[in-house]
Batch of 4 targets.
Target 1
Amino acid sequence: MSQQGEQLQERTMQFAVDICELIKLLPTWEPGPAIRHISWREFIKRAKLLSSPELPRLLQEALELRNIFGASGGTARDRQRTDFKR
């Protein structure tokens, strides 16, 4: 695995661990099916389920990782199309 790949893997693992820690701070009630239609990040923020100084950082990290993986998926699809045409 490349150094960049290893760094992304570590970053993703740390994000998962940080989210687990954040989940421990959430109230124990179940918000129900309406949550499926709302971004969980926005839901936590609007419902004021917790006030953690980590929340803004984790929201930003979630967006950045989503963008990285989205771009990576697009690159993989482009390569697959190029390889198919050969």
Target 2
Amino acid sequence: MGESQRLQGVQPEVLTLEEVAAFLRTTEQAVLDLLAEEGIPARKIGGEWRFLKQGIKEWLSELGEKPTPPRPGTREALHQAYGMFKDEPDFEEHFADLRRRRRIEGGT
């Protein structure tokens, strides 16, 4: 029995870019973007990307554990960055003043 016949019907543990895109139900370009932006686990072998199926599953499950960071400059971002001061009664006033000063000093 040849190698390809023996492996038919067996889910491979090492996936190609095309297979990962199908597994994630997205495009190959979206997977490449995830490589660059989100750190999806992969290795380049012989000029082609390879992915461990278990690594992709773990990466997906970790995504649910990480909260989405707030957009920079929003009240939520300020509260996250300066959490120990968020309960100060004049917190918003102080940061509004800082933003005004930045605009004046920065020329914007």
Target 3
Amino acid sequence: MSTAGLSQAGSIEIKPYLFGGNNWYYPHFSNQLGVPAAAIRQGDWKLILHFEKQEVELYNRKMDMSESKELKSIHPEKAEELYGLLLNWFADTHANLPISKEPESR
């Protein structure tokens, strides 16, 4: 039985977040040396957010498929745009964000 198009009160449609999405989210460490990060793609552009360092990397996948030339200093407006879209996506999906291991300075 297909449930396409059906909705229930208080529920959200998750299919857009699972199929054909341009976002990637890995919020934890793993025993295979994985580190918390997230990414968003828009057209030829890809932004990666490293949670532990709170740093971003920006790449143009059409011009640099191997992601060897980081471009955030050359295209800061594109980095800011994609970072904002990624933060909005976290809010829209109620993503549980990683907690910093560093103590807060007081």
Target 4
Amino acid sequence: MKKLWDGIKGIYQLHLQIAPLMKELAEAHKENEALRLRLRELETKADIRSKVELRGRVYYLTEPLKGYSEGPFCALCLDEDGILITAMPGAVAGYWRCRRCERKRHA
């Protein structure tokens, strides 16, 4: 009976040692997933940057990008936030308006 009790105590002690390690592993896994997501975001932004050219004060795609028109895109939204926002024609010919940042730009 004493051997059984000693075995149970040993297993309990191992469990107490393993529990913090399991918590650390879960936290590391969560951090790893967040870093993978951030890496994918940065790769997407780099891919977009490699496929646009600045014409005047708006960007246009130089090659097709799934889900996007040819342009024009707001230069400020791409430069500051790395996202493609279609620029809308302004009230005056030659001007563009961004529906996201609300800035008006001359082409």
